Amino acid sequence: MTGSGAAPGSLADVERAAREALSPDVWDFVAGGSGGELTLAANRTALDRIALVPRALTGCTAASPGCTVLGEPWPMPAAVAPMAYQRLLHPEGEVAAARAAAATGVTYVISTMSSTPLDRITATGARTWFQLYWLRERARTADLVHRAEQAGCRALVLTVDVPVMGRRLRDARNGFALPGSVTAALLGDGPDSATAHTPDGTGSAVARHTSAVFDPGLGWQDIAWLRGITSLPLALKGVLSPDDARRAADAGVDLLVVSNHGGRQLDGAISSADALPAVTAAVAGRLPVLLDSGVRDGTDVLRALALGASGVLLGRPVLWGLAADGEAGVRTVLDQVRDELEHAMLLAGCPTPAHAPGLARRATEGL
């Protein structure tokens, strides 16, 4: 795929090109999950169990995948998920991915663990949200929030499912460490900055760095504090429990992301697709809900919409495109997902995302 700009037959082709382009340890960092990777596999199995029930004789001659999320128009119900250290995959890293997002009108969520400074990413012209990890030093957390505001990010996405990093055995076996050219660019040169680059023979250097900088004590009281220091819309990413979803809505959170971190945190956790219906029912339309983890194509986006989500976050497929062909590769992925979604909607007799709820059945359910 590299340099060709040609559309692949499927995103599986992009995945194969990415695997060929990356070293085995970086591929494992991208592709791997935690523990025995049960939840990683369950994310895919759960989506594959969702059968779409097309509606016939609808008179639908065209499908329009555009929608509105947090008051802003999206060309399709999908955004780029926050993902760390994108310069591991391509020299331009986050900048290349954000340029592709800008070209397609897709919102790009910047990770706290970005390997590129904020201003270089927002200078691409992409619509950006900022994903926040809770740091041990509250002043550093507040500084990140204020820098995101000043850089023009439109929303704040607090990840709530990483009190500690999951046991990512592929990385531990590889003794995975960042090369010197790739850093956590937003965290500066604190005393912990060298940890991620220093293998010590005991496991993942990246995991040790995470343990050094993330605060495991994040609680509901901190949501109130966070709301008090920013006027940005606030999303919580990593919600799987209906009770947590109700509490978030009661706390004035603006959006939820149903996510198990792509199978990279608690192994054995419920799949995101299985958790989604109960979460959407719990909030009963009080706030939008996005699905993250396991989404691989446009049909998966329609499945998420049919289960009641307002949209999805696209994770690993974007990284595949970045590794395979930089900005052009990411644009190929985003364009293809939109084309696949539009085609699936038309075949399902679904003219807009608002018509999708109710199209889904579990494969074992009747009609």
TrEMBL record:
The entry's keywords: Flavoprotein, FMN, Oxidoreductase
Cofactor list: FMN
InterPro entries, alphabetized: Aldolase_TIM (IPR013785), Alpha-hydoxy_acid_DH_FMN (IPR012133), FMN-dep_DH (IPR000262), FMN_HAD (IPR037396), FMN_hydac_DH_AS (IPR008259)
Residues binding glyoxylate: Y133, R168, H261, R264
Gene Ontology MF annotations: FMN binding; oxidoreductase activity, acting on CH-OH group of donors
UniProt-annotated catalytic positions: H261 (proton acceptor)
Top-level division of the source organism's lineage: Bacteria
Binding, FMN: 82-84, 111, 131, 159, 237, 259, 292-296, 315-316
UniProt domain FMN hydroxy acid dehydrogenase: residue ranges: 3-366
UniProt-listed Pfam families: FMN_dh
Family statement: Belongs to the FMN-dependent alpha-hydroxy acid dehydrogenase family.
Protein name: 2-hydroxy-acid oxidase
Gene expressing this chain: sln2
